[in-house]
Amino acid sequence: MRFLNLVSFLSTTTLALTTGLDERHANENALIARAATVCGSGYKLQDAIPLPEGTEPSMRLATLYSYQGNGKGCLILDNNVGESQYMYLRVCKYDDTNCDKDSGSFSQYAGPVYIESFACAPVVAKMGDSSSKLYIDFEDEYVFPCN
Questions:
Q1: How many domains does the structure of the chain reveal?
Q2: What are the residue ranges in the chain where pLDDT is below 50?
Q3: Strand 133-140's sheet: what is its strand order?
């Protein structure tokens, strides 16, 4: 099942990347919905954060998608560059325990990573040419709500 979800997400993302950023922006809702299937059924989009922070959505290099469902949180770091990059994605409980992470060289996305107790869960998202040459180094404990 995960393989089929992955193929479906990759097909949509690849199509968006090959047709350019303008069409990617136009197809954003389809991409968001398709990305949710990577987390599994029952997940709903909570937020899409263009990275680096402060970047116009059409100029983003990556997008951090957060989802909630089934009593869990799920994250995906989408590579908007169009070529393989070093990516690192981690989420932990509020006290920095029970972490889930994914890292490596990815052309499409890092994740999904999951967290059961997602209130105030610290999230780290990194992307660059290598682990020592990052152009995205994002950390935030408010990606998921703190209630």
A1: 1
A2: 1-21, 24
A3: 100-106, 85-91, 123-130, 133-140
pLDDT for 30 equals 63
Which neighbouring-strand residues pair with 84?
none
Residue with tokens 């890292």: 103
C-alpha 47/C-alpha 121 separation (Å) is: 14
pLDDT digit string, tens, across residues 112-133: 999 998 989 999 999 999 999 9
Query: Per the domain annotation, does 87 fall within a domain?
Result: yes
Tell me which residue range forms the domain holding 135: 42-140
CA–CA dist 80, 97 (Å, integer):
30
What's the CATH code of the domain at 64? 2.60.40
DSSP 59: G
Question: What's the rounded Cα separation, in Å, for the pair 55 and 92?
Answer: 26
Is 28 part of a structural domain of the chain? no
CA 10 to chain CA centroid, Å, is 13
Residue 20 lies in a domain: no
